[in-house]
Predict the structure of Guanine deaminase.
Amino acid sequence: MTSNLQAYRGSLLHFLADPAFSDQSHDWFEDGLLIVEDGKVQAAGDYATLHATLPQGAVVHDYSGKLLMPGFIDTHLHYPQTDMIASPSEGLLPWLETYTFPVERQFEDTHHAADVADFFLDELLRCGTTTAMVYCTVHPQSVDAFFTASEQRGLRMVAGKVMMDRNCPDFLRDTAESSARDTEALIQRWHKRGRSLYAITPRFAPTSTNLQLQLAGELARAYPDTFIQTHVSENEAECAWVRELFPNARSYIDVYDSYGMMRPRAMYGHCIWLDERDRQRMAETQSAAAICPTSNLFLGSGLFDFERADDAGVLLSLATDVGGGTSFSMLQTMNEAYKVARLKGSYLPALRMFYLATLGAARAMQLEGTIGSFSAGAEADFIVIDPQATPLLQRRTARSESLEELLFALALLGDDRAIAATYAAGRQVHVRETT
C-alpha cells in the first residue's frame, strides 16, 4: 500500500456545472468514498464500487452520517479588519474613516500582522473555508505575514498589498511609484510559491490616482497569471464620489476597464449598482463578481441582482467581506444571499448556493481543476459537514426528504459548528472540538 494514500467514507457532494443552467450539475453519493494521494484527489464516487479498488490494508476514515464536499472558497475579505468586525456605523464611507483606517495602521508592526493572520486563518478553517482572496494593508510586511502563516498551514490562498495613494490618512498613504514597486517585489516573492498566489490590489478607485491605476494596469499586463482584486459599485454615495473623481469615465467599472484591469482572474467586490453595459463588459472580459450579502446588508449598501447578472453571463461567487461582513462562515453567508435574492424577486436554491461557494468560485477565479471539486487530480481541500451539529439542525435534517432540503437546512441553520473537520491538500488542518 502507498503510505500516503488516504480514504474517507461519507455522503459525498461536488459540482460539475452551475445548477441554474444544467440538470446534471452535481455528483451525489449518499454512501461515498473519497480517495486522496499526495495531497490530490485520486477518485471520488460510490463506496461499494471504489472500496474494492483500495490496496489491501488501506485505512478508511469513517465519516458516515456526515457530508464530505470541497472546501469553501471566499472570494473577498480583509484580514486586517478581523478585530473591527461588528463595528457600528451609518454607512460605508464613515465606517472606513472611523474604524478601518485606524485598525489597518497597526499592520506596520510585523508581529501584530502575524498574530492577526494566525487568528484569521484559523477562523477560516474552523468555518470550512480552504481558499480565500484576501486584502492585506498598504504595508508590504502585512502581505509577508499573511503568506507566511498560510504557507505554514499548506493553504491555497490569494492575497495582495492594498494600493492607496489618495483620499486616505497620511499614515496609510503610499505613492503610485512605491505601490507598483512594492507590488512587483511581492509578486516575485510570493506568486506561485507553494500554494500562494498574488493579487494586484488597488483598494478602490477613489483611493487611487490615475497614475496608480495606470501602473496597476501595467503590472496586470506584465504578470497576466496574477489576480486583480478591488471594489466596485458597492454603495450609492461611493458611486457618486467616483463620478466626481473620474468625470470622463462612462461608469465606475469603466474606470478600471480604461486601465486594462478587466480580464480573467479579476475579482470585483460587490457589483451592486451596475448597469447592463457594465455586466456585459464583465462577461466579455471574464471578470468576476464577489457577492457579499452580509456586508451589503450590514452597511445598507444595496441588494445584488442575481437575475440580471445571470442574464449577462457574469461569473459569480460568494464572499464574506469580513470585517464589513459579519461572519467568517460561508453557511451564514448563504443564509443572507438567499434573503437578498428573495428581496430582489428571485430565488436561490441551496444547490446553487453551495455551487457558488465551491466550483462556481473556482471558475470565477479561473482555478477549475485545481480547487473547488473532487475531479481527479484536483487539490484535496475538503470539509466534513455534520448535519447533527446542533439540536435544531439534527431535528430538521432528520426530516429532510431530498438533497435540496438537507442543503437548505445547512445553509439557513448552519454556522461554524457544522464543520466537523477541514482538510487542506489532504492534511487535516482543523477538527471541531467536542465536549
Remarks:
- Residues 31 and 364 are 30 Å apart (CA to CA).
- The longest helix spans residues 110-126.
- The mean pLDDT is 96.
- The chain has two domains: 5-70+372-431, 72-348.
